[in-house]
Amino acid sequence: MTAIDVTSSSEEFQDQSIPGADALNVNDRYNEERAKRLRNDGNNQYLEPSLSKDFQFFIDDPWADPATVKDLETMFPDHSCKLLILGAGWGGLLYAIRMLDVGFQPEDIRIIDTAGGFGGTWYWNRYPGLFCDIESYCYLPLLEETGYIPKHRYATGDEIRNYANFAAEKWGLVGSAVFQTKAEKLAWNEKAKEWKVDLVQERKGVPPQTLQVRASFVATVNGALNWPKLPGIPGIAEFRGEMFHSSRWKYAVTGGSPTDSSLTKLKDLRVAIVGTGATAVQIVPHLARWAKLLYVVQRTPASVDIRDQRETDTEWFQKEVAIEPGWQRKRMMNFHQQFTTEKQPESDLVKDRWTDARTMCAVSGNEAGPKTMDEFPAYMQKLHALDLPRQDSVRTRVEQVVKDPAVAKKLQAWYPTWCKRPTFHDEYLETFNRDNVTLVDTDGQGPERITADSIVAGGQSNPVDLIVFATGFRAPFTGSPAAKGNMKILGRNGLSMNEEWARAGPFTQHGVLDPNFPNLFLSGPWQASISPNNLFNTDALAKHSAYILKEARSRANGKPFSVSSTKEAAEDWGTQVMMRAAPMAAIIGCTPSYFNVEGELDKAPPEMQMQLAKSGLWGHGIEDFVRVLEAWQEEGSLQGVEIVI
């Protein structure tokens, strides 16, 4: 194993910066490393293939079978539907299933997606080594309803995708799906109390088909990890070898398949993988086994803890996990309760390295956090005191596993746990002990350029035949739901959602209803809540949206109607979000990542701080957020909801 040092201009840290040093010195080191990653262009440093004709090939669908995709006219024979769901991932499925729970029928629903099948991010991502980092008994939804027993403690991507297809079949939603289809524009018709939706369907070998349909209700559930991004490295277009994004893996180039990680076609190839985040941590060991040479191009090292994967013992699962009605909800609640600066529950049902990462409450919300910004400095001290032993152990593990001290040093993560999504793997670090693997550490700067046959970093050219970009997706916390879908949404009086949210920020009640866009159900994360287990958040909003629509339909007595929040309710909700915002300020000052929009949150002028606080996440955490929604439902009056017949 070798490391290419492109840090010659950086000062070497003395012994006080090694693991075990006091918190003050560690914090200084955090700030030093963060400074390396700060850029003036922030989130604009990335290229978006979905918005560029030159890079469209990066988002081509390698999995779709056009012969199995029904055309728009077949799926919309009368050019209408009662409920249109944008997104066929797990979020879209959950919204559809919860709507079935309150009286909709499968034939009332159409679910559209640019993909060729169900699964969302699990449809697109099929790279070798793919698994979910959240325990499958929590992550996979509807386990009680389906009776399904996950095969492993952490489900593979293939299993999650197959389970999504299983759920679609069980709830009769297979015939509701309209694949390889995108909504280009939604326009509200106040008189008819419905949406006009311009659809375009693009299938290989078939001319694009367009159709305008009417939908009484629309749900935007188009995902958090749906549009791949590329680093804005000069020269990408000049490269003459093979290259692809990790979310569009080309097994025709590498060999193998989604169920076979034998990448036999790499044995004579020099491969570079750009990125060292959660995706790359899973891919790197597989590339290393098969490639002639592997260059791992790193800006910021991942914080890699133990995974401890294992097969599910069915007898154990039935006797220790699925032991009573409501077991999965109880398990997820217990999981969420681990993330706090105060005393954790006496029991830890999950008992993995996630539940040791208590300080992730800094981004998921903390009911025990500060109530005002005056309390914030003391809160930050508490966070760091809780976090330092964990991060020290993660950094120490690198030194214990990686044989070359120089390489180990470059693989140590110098930032708090909450600044990036932690990763978990039992083989990633060991990979750097292989002779065919080279760490190209760019000291936070990234590569300088790409040529026809190489990646250049630190002035050194690294000849490669294949480049894999494991560089993530468009930041999930930027733009409106319309922007997330690369579409236009025009509400009351022709108001553009993109323009209005850019001007004033999110304006919702409970994160699901906007007064300017009736009969449109949102799915967060704006003005809602998150946890490390994203599907739980989405399901909570799906249940809430279904409740609102059920009650509104009951009050409308069969007549066409519109349902939205009142402006007063949306304003009040923004105030409620702002009042709980103090715990979320911990992300300020973090190493740039999608969590803080590549450091752009730090640059917000004082006059924008209040708007950001009103627009953000529920600072008291997901369980408190759910309690608020359930209490509102129990009260029963639909307070703040306007129904117009």
TrEMBL record:
Belongs to the FAD-binding monooxygenase family. Keywords: FAD, Flavoprotein, NADP, Oxidoreductase. GO terms for molecular function: oxidoreductase activity. This is FAD/NAD(P)-binding domain-containing protein. Its cofactor is FAD. It comes from the Eukaryota.
